[in-house]
Specification:
about 80 residues; two-stranded antiparallel sheet; two-stranded antiparallel ribbon; 2 helices; 6 strands; about 25% strand; elongated
Length: about 80
């Protein structure tokens, strides 16, 4: 059995994730996310999902990007009225 890199637990169902030429071992997706997910450059939250990227930095939302001086990113497109059914 291998030990989880995040919490140290040894588990018979541990799994490996290869990224950037390095292989990591985890006992849960939660531990893998904690170790591997990019962090928001402003608030440091783990970005699970698409997130936003500007100037080589990652942000969880447009608000955090603005706090870092990046004003080009937006959370949604302008509202142009309701879409047709």
């Amino acid at each position: 059995m291998k030990a989880c890199e995040t919490c140290g637990n040894t588990y018979d169902k541990a799994f490996e994730v290869s990224i950037g030429g390095t292989t990591h071992t985890f006992d849960s997706f939660a531990c893998a996310i904690h170790m591997l997910a990019p962090r928001c450059n402003h608030c440091k939250v783990a970005i699970i999902g698409q997130g936003m990227e500007a100037r080589g930095q990652y942000y969880c939302c447009a608000y955090c990007a603005r706090q870092a001086g990046v004003h080009e990113l937006v959370d949604r497109a302008p509202d142009r009225g309701a879409a047709a059914p």
